[in-house]
Amino acid sequence: MKDSPELRAAIQATSAFHDLSDADLGFLIEAAELETSETGAALMIQGEPSDCAMLILAGEVTVSADSARGAVSISTLRAPSLVGELGSLAKLPRSATARARTPVTALRFGRAALVEVARATPSLLIDVIGRMGERMRKFNGAISLYTEALVALERHELDPALLEELRNPIPDLAEFGQTFGRMAEQIILRRQRDDEMASAAVIQRALLPKVSDFAAESGLDVWAAMKPARDVGVDFADGRVALGVGDVCGKGVPAALFMGITRTLIRINLRETPDLPGAITKANAYLVHNNAGGFFATLI
Predict the structure, then answer these.
(1) Which of 142-151, 157-166, 207-216, 261-270 is predicted with the least confidence, judged by mean pLDDT?
(2) Are 120 and 164 contained in the same domain?
(3) Is the model's pTM score more than 0.85?
(4) Are residues 255 and 187 part of one domain?
(5) Are 16 and 89 in the same domain?
(6) pLDDT of amino acid 91
(7) What is the pLDDT of residue 108?
(8) How many domains does the chain have?
(9) Based on the domain organization, do 29 and 88 belong to the same domain?
(10) What pLDDT was estimated at residue 217?
């Protein structure tokens, strides 16, 4: 690679190479390879060996981590930026994929040259340690977040803002974070359904006639329970008694409300005219023509 003052200035603009001596700068430049990449080209692939680091001289690079649900965006790097140095020095597989967001010009430093310069320049290693420390800080913060989320789930206190944070995990926890987030969402949905069913049960019990009042008015010794049949009780105004047992399609609050509408229609019609077949026919006609949800009920 051809040496120049501009190239030296570009390399030393990054914190890792800021304190390199002239000799180490020259050695690094001599060992470097200049590369250009078109938009969308992969500069580094997650899981591959870390055999080099790259200094972005021009352009932008997107960094993402692969997960079971696709790529998770992590960050966008703009020139001048150094990428891949941690894995290269530690001989670790790539922890993320780097792709050119725009046309990119970069210097590629082989691992051997990078290690040689690091041995001669302690500040480079200090910079790398600082990056690792920041990464550990984020990792510890993520673990704390998941611990907090588990406690909140246990107490039924998972805040939507906390759930949103779980959707943006750090690279090393991308797949785990997404799985945890999906699990938390499913738990919340199931609890919402349970709450809905509990509300439906309350609504249905409230719609049933009170057995004691019915017994006092009719003179009959009666007892009733619902588990989980949808009962429809109606009465006549002239002392006669009609007992109806019905079932509404579906479950939950919508079915409970439809049961209430059906029951109320029959009651109102009977109070106007004590004709049971006519009251049921009239209620049926109303439900047929005012039933966008397609609900239905059976009645004996």
Answers:
(1) 157-166
(2) no
(3) no
(4) no
(5) yes
(6) 85
(7) 92
(8) 3
(9) yes
(10) 73
Q: Please name the residue that has the structure tokens 């926890």.
A: 173
* Domain endpoint, select from 116, 134, 152: 134
pLDDT of residue 233: 44
Higher pLDDT, 80 or 256: 80
Among the ranges given (136-150, 177-191, 218-232), the one the predictor scored with the smallest mean pLDDT: 218-232
Task: Decide if 80 contacts 14 (C-beta within 8 A).
Answer: yes
Domain of 129 in residue numbering reads as 5-134
